[in-house]
Amino acid sequence: MKKLIIIVLVMISVVTGFISFALDKEKYVSECLSESNFDNSGQDKEIIQGVLKNNYADTQRMLIENYDAFGFNSKEEVPKEYGKPYKVYQLGDIFSSFKNNKNISGCIDKSYFWEIPLLDNDGNILNTITVGKEKDNWSIVSAGKRFNNDLLKFYSDDDAVREYLKSEYNIEKVNKISRITAYYFDGIHIRQNNKEYIIPITARPELFKIKNLGMYTIEEFIPKYKNMLSSFGMTVENINH
Asked: Organism's domain of life (predicted)?
């Protein structure tokens, strides 16, 4: 009887510990997402929170099983925490937009995905996961960073972008910062009153013959993007259809 009581107490302790962990993790997700900008709608916040709560454990298990493929030296290096999500917009027909009204805002597509940094114990970004929409359902659609950790740290931090613009280009006020992606290109779109700029942040800047973290007007960027496509034997029509 005494042994049975001990076993029951141990089981209660384990279950209580698991519930406590689950509740703490859920609270952590909520606190993490509450710090992020979700366009004041709240809808995306609930979506991302649900996806992380339901699917992150499976994704982490996959990262652990394939740790070397994701650039980790051991299973222990696989991150157990994540940082603030940020929205990445797909660029639409950038060339038609440039031709018609010479601004990039008009070609930022309504489609987007959320990228979520994976952090080590010191808060450093080690990798990312992507939450996107497939067949009307949101889920973790991919894992793996698109560029190195230093660029990723800058790319994911609005404050770092603003400080960089201030120190490097003497730009004090920025109306909007948007992360954008297109065929073989990633970057940050900056809007300052009626002016627009693109800051390239791409794994292969040599393809564009541009400087990562440089700042380009749309007029400067378009020819470089076209030249990059040409080097692959592609045309504007190839990526728009």
From this structure: Bacteria
pLDDT winner (highest mean) among 52-66, 100-114, 153-167, 214-228: 153-167
3-state DSSP assignment of residue 109 = strand
pLDDT, tens digit, for every residue of 48-57?
888 888 888 8
C-alpha 112/C-alpha 110 separation (Å) is 6
The residue type found at 34 is S
Q: pLDDT grade, residue 195 (50/70/90)?
A: confident
Residue 141: helix, strand or coil by DSSP? Answer: strand
The sign one gets for the Cα dihedral 217, 218, 221, 223 is negative
Residue 179: closest CA among 203, 204, 161 = 161
How far is the C-alpha of 92 from the C-alpha of 97, rounded, in Å? 9
| DSSP annotation of 96 | H
Domain boundaries, the chain: 79-240
Q: From CA 103, how far away is CA 108, in angstroms rounded?
A: 10
CB-CB contact of 215 with 190 (8 Å): yes
Element (H, E) at 101: helix 94-101
What digits encode the pLDDT tens for the residues 131-169?
A: 998 888 899 999 998 888 899 999 999 999 999 999 999
pTM: predicted TM-score of the whole model, two decimal places = 0.76
User: Which candidate, 36, 26, 47, places its Cα nearest to that of 138?
Assistant: 47
